[in-house]
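Researcher: Next entry: TIGR02646 family protein (Pseudomonas gessardii).
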Amino acid sequence: MRSIRKGAEPRELIDWRRANRETPQNLFYGRGSSFPGEPVRKALLLEQFHLCAYTLRRLPTADECLARGQGTIFSCHIEHVLPQAEHEAKSIAYDNMVACYPASQSGVACEYGAIEKKAYDPAKGLFVSPLSPAASQQFRFSSDGRVEGLSPEAVKTVEVLKLNHATLVNNRKAVIRGRLMPRGKPISAAAARRLCDEAEVPDANQCLLEYCLALKQQAELHAQKYEKKAARTRGLPRH
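Model: Predicted structure:
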């Protein structure tokens, strides 16, 4: 999980609330609502750099969806950090919304992330919100793809979201190994340092690398390992 910096709420959401000022019964999120889901999802995807708020899985961009003749409902679903059932007033608050895997219309079975969080209420139990400025510092990823919570809140978050589900662990491991050990050979310390920087900078399509936090942490350790190895080699006496 990485920290998400919320941007301004979409103009369409502001206009929707204003248009229904005299009919507050229409101001709800869910089936039968005129809630402007498409512009909200687009805004969430951009501010999250097209990564799931909880799992860091990559989410298709609006342009990728459009190329398939689809809307962003095929990219993600809108997740309420504070569940709607317990916090009705926050159900249409942009500062309570994040984009998550799986997509609303994907039809895929998923056993981790927002699907597993369900109605768990962070206001009543331990949880690290991706909207917390310190979220990125509370998780440690290993080279085998597993994640460890570094605080009681983070430990509970890993449990609630099932962030060590086999699918996520295997995906993270494959990404880490693919970038640090391409074709089975380790990259140089300098290349690992470049990868650390790349993991923090979105590309031209405003996308961050999938599982960027895990990749950055392991690239940093990889660089340190080979820098120390090089230093020891330089320190050997010449014959």
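Model: Note for the record: The helical segments are 11-19, 37-47, 62-67, 114-117, 152-161, 166-180, 189-198, 212-235.
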